[in-house]
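Friendly challenge for the regulars: who can give me the structure tokens for this chain first? No prize, just bragging rights.
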Amino acid sequence: DKFLQERVIISQRLGAQDPNSTGLVNNVYADGYGQTSQEVLIPTFIAAYSGKSGDKVSLKSFDKYIPMPNWRITFDGLSKLPLIANIFKQFTLTHSYRSTFNVSSFTTNLNFEEGKPLRDINNNFISQYQVSTVSISEQFSPLIGADMTLENSLLFRIEFAKDRNAALSVNNNQITEIQGSEWTIGTGYKFKQVRFPFSKNRVIKSDIDARVDVSLRSNETIIRKIVEKVNQLTSGQKVLSIRFTADYRISQYLNLRAFYDYVSTTPFISTTFPTSNTNAGISLRFTLSQ
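First reply, four minutes later:
Bragging rights claimed.
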């Protein structure tokens, strides 16, 4: 149990730095920094979900933690290879990562006194700031993606994305973790100079931009109870979505769109039931601005 190991390491580090701590309790946790201490839980949470060791993570609750830098990489060098260039007009690979660290709120603890450590009902030292929730969010959006355009202007797109959101509730010593992954495949084509069938007085011709995207997403929500050492899958689902659009510009100000959306949800647990929704129709958009 990495979380348990890091929690013990951080507790002992805090106790070694605090002259008010009188040693180890049951040869495990430092006095005043037990398993439910806020000063222990937050650095342990950061260490466990950032891949750091408990020996190296900052012991500050939140003010010294910096998440990994975000990045986005786009590479189109493959389109210069003769074999690729003979088939594709454009071939682009993408990779992106984004992370955030969030402290929902914190308040100054009125029971805290500098140099006069007070203890709570669990015999832990009272912190200067009372934090309710901290969370870490990570998204590979996409982990790997490819956009391809053939010589006949036919478009293809394929992406695989992953994400993870973890929130630590200090009030009930519980972590809520949501893990997700998604495959997306799309294609599109531009039909050039198609005549509008309902025009009588004059001939109207315009391009039709057609697009189809199919995605399959999987979500799991896991509750991790720290004290009880229980991990429980509370919700999860597979979501299949199909989206089709076709845009036809009748004039500079009027756009006609036909659309079809289908979403099917299959839950992982028996307490919820599968659902499906379908939306289809035609929309007109009139733009007043030039």
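DSSP finds three helices and 13 strands in the chain. Helices lie at 2-17, 38-50, 82-85. Your move, everyone else.
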